[in-house]
């Protein structure tokens, strides 16, 4: 009898160990939303704007909210609007004749997971303004906090201007750590080659100027080298 009890207890322990060892599937973040309006690099005719984006899909069917951020810089540091809402749109009045940058994050409210959209730029129209400053340079490679291999490296970026007939030129700043200096001016290409050494950290930025002399000061990105 005692032997039977021991065997039964061992079976029960094994059963519960197997049950407990089965991990629950990890919760997944919602899908990335697609920004609809204002579209990328749009010149708005009115500074009261109906922001709109697509609905996100959550793999776990969790409830979702959306965090809308509007800023005056591409890295979303100089934030002028930060709202969390349950719908896929919001109407906001902004300053005229100003470049803005916006992004929407879909938030899984159950497990606090989120996914971020692209950052879109747009320009609100001013009264009697005929020329606008270019948008800030969009640093492509290397991005902020990236890690790269030692050797020759191409700094690349994108840039645009509401005044599509304007010719854009670029001034590149580059240096070790957070000390950067101008290394080229009036560059017409969206690329500049540099050499980087192993174990070091570098920073860079790009200023964009149109043919009327209007300039957008770029933001600094920092990267490290293996």
TrEMBL record:
InterPro entries linked: FN3_sf, Ig-like_fold
SUPFAM superfamilies per UniProt: Fibronectin type III (SSF49265)
The name this protein goes by in its record: Fibronectin type-III domain-containing protein
Organism: Polaribacter marinaquae
